[in-house]
Amino acid sequence: AQSVAQPEDQVNVAEGNPLTVKCTYSVSGNPYLFWYVQYPNRGLQFLLKYITGDNLVKGSYGFEAEFNKSQTSFHLKKPSALVSDSALYFCAVRDGGSGNTGKLIFGQGTTLQVKP
Amino acid sequence: EPEVTQTPSHQVTQMGQEVILRCVPISNHLYFYWYRQILGQKVEFLVSFYNNEISEKSEIFDDQFSVERPDGSNFTLKIRSTKLEDSAMYFCASRRQGSSGTGELFFGEGSRLTVL
User: Fold this and answer.
1) B31 touches chain A (CB under 8 A)
2) Which residues in chain B are closer than 8 Å to A104, comparing Cβ atoms?
3) pLDDT by residue (tens digit) across B25-76?
4) How far does A44 lie from chain B, in Å, by closest CA?
5) What is the pLDDT of residue B1?
6) What is the spatial distance between Cα A76 and Cα B113, in angstroms, rounded to a whole number?
C-alpha cells in the first residue's frame, strides 16, 4: 500500500532562513506526490505536486519540493522563510492501488514555526 | 477562483442524532471526496464518489455513514446516529477529471462536528 511519512512533528526556523520539511514515501509503481498546507481552522490548500519530469517542482508562495527517487523522498523547501509560513504541512501520495479514484493518502503532518 | 464550499462551519449535536454535512464542489469537477481530521491528528480518507456512486470507502465509513449528490451540485455526508468519536473536522474535496487521476484535490474549509 502507498504511504508517506513525515519524520518531524515540528520544524522551527528563523525568519529569513531556508526551511525544509521532510517527507519520505513508499509506493508501488510511479509516485504521485503532493504537498498541502493548513492554516489554523482552515482547509487544506494545495502547494505543489510531482507527477513526472523535473525533480525540482515549484509551487505556490515560493515553495518548492525536490523529488529524490533513490532516497524515496519529497522534501518541501523554501529559500527564505516568512512568519506567515507558520502552519501545518501535509505530504500526500496518490493511492494508485485503488483504480482511478485519485484518493490521496496523507502523512501525519509537520508543524512549521517561523520565528521573527 | 472557484472553490469548494461547505456548510455548516460548525455543528454541535447530541449523541445518537443524525447529522448532514453539505458541500458544493467546484462546478466542472467530477470526483468528490470526504475526509475527516480528528483534532490534532492526520487527515483520514472516508469516501470517494464518482458518476453518482461510491468508488471507494475506508473502514471508517461504516453503515452509519452515507453520501449523496441529490441535485447535481450539492454533495452531502450523512451520519445516521452520531457517536462521541465522530467529533472531528470533516473536509469535502473535489477533483476535475485528469489523466490517471493525477490532479490535485481542492478542499473546502471544513465542517467542525462536535458530538456531546
Assistant:
1) yes
2) 45, 105
3) 998 898 999 999 998 788 999 999 998 999 999 999 999 999 999 887 899 9
4) 6
5) 72
6) 31
**What is the bridge-based pairing of β-strands B43-50 and B75-79?**
unpaired
Per-residue pLDDT tens over the stretch A52-84: 888 999 999 999 999 999 999 999 999 999 999
Question: CB B105 to CB A108 under 8 A?
Answer: no
* pLDDT tens-digit series, residues A15-44: 999 999 999 999 888 889 999 999 988 889
Residue A70 Cα, gap to closest chain B Cα (Å): 22
What span, in angstroms and rounded, lies between the C-alpha atoms of B41 and A63?
Answer: 24
- Residue in chain B closest to A6 (alpha carbons) equals B42
A77 C-beta neighbours (distance < 10 Å), count: 15
Max intra-chain CA distance, chain B: 43
Task: Give me the residue label for grid cell 504521485.
Answer: A32
